[in-house]
Amino acid sequence: MVVERAIALWKREHYDKFGLKLGIVSASISIIASVVFTSWALRADDFTKPAAYCSAATVTSAGRVTVLVFSLCGVDVLTLIGILVLYIFNDIALKRKIFDLQSSYQLRENICVIRFILPLTVFQTICYLIFSASTGVISLFESSVSLLTYRTLFAAFYVIPYYTMIAPILIWFIIRWSQQLKQSRLRRLKMQNTDGKEVYFRTYADMWNSELSNKH
Questions:
Q1: 142 and 123 together in one domain
Q2: Domain endpoint, select from 158, 191, 207
Q3: Looking at the 3D structure of the chain, how many domains does it have?
Q4: What's residue 16's pLDDT?
Q5: Residue 32 has pLDDT above 90, yes or no
Q6: For 89-125, what is each residue's pLDDT tens digit?
Q7: C-alpha separations of 9 from 2, 98, 102 in Å
Q8: CB under 8 Å to 73, separation ≥6 — which residues?
Q9: Quick one: 15 and 109 in the same domain?
Q10: Could you say which residues form the signal peptide (predicted)?
Q11: Does residue 133 sit in the same domain as residue 43?
């Protein structure tokens, strides 16, 4: 999504000509990448083997799943950097105040997207960093502690179920917050429009009364 919005910022004047195709391509790449990496991590896995807690990893796939989790941490960090860069350049473009309707729409759309994905990305990055760091540290002591202690520690720091539970709630709050901001902005615009009309008609009435007074 960050890449798609960066392209929309770069080609904002003509984005409507290829935006739909870019969205389809981005979604397809995301789905294919998810299937490929998951298949790689769990390929030839023996699901009859015991798994720690409710993790998808077994003895066979633990190493590949760990690599995948650390890779996701890297992707999350890069995404945060990308969001920051996108925000900076989008803010620079907004301050120029020289753009057409299509460009204005894309710049405002970037603000909405950043407002949506930034909290979710920060939350996801924190969860995966905690999980990755704790998994790495616990693995160092795997040979020096009992199996019961190892699984207890693993379960204590296994934050993925909490992430799965909290993420939809966070998305719901972000959507509600965005809707409230949009409604507030519409109310301000309506008030400004009403104030403008009042000033216009008041000025017109003063001019009319002034002309009538001069005639008398």
A1: yes
A2: 158
A3: 2
A4: 78
A5: yes
A6: 888 888 886 667 777 778 888 888 888 888 888 998 8
A7: 10, 14, 11
A8: 125, 128, 129, 132
A9: yes
A10: none
A11: yes
Q: CA torsion sign, 185 to 188 to 194 to 195?
A: negative
How many Å is the Cα radius of gyration of the chain?
A: 27
C-alpha span between 126 and 107 (Å, rounded): 28
Is 185 found in the same domain as 95?
A: no
Co-location of 141 and 172 in the same domain: no
The pair of structure tokens assigned to 86 is 């996108």
User: What is the pTM for the complete model shown?
Assistant: 0.69
Structural domain harbouring 196: 162-216
Instruction: Give 131-152 pLDDT, tens digit per residue.
Output: 888 877 877 777 777 877 877 7
Question: 136 is written with which tokens?
Answer: 């790495």
The tens digit of pLDDT for each residue in 43-53 reads: 766 666 665 55
* Token output for 55: 């993790």
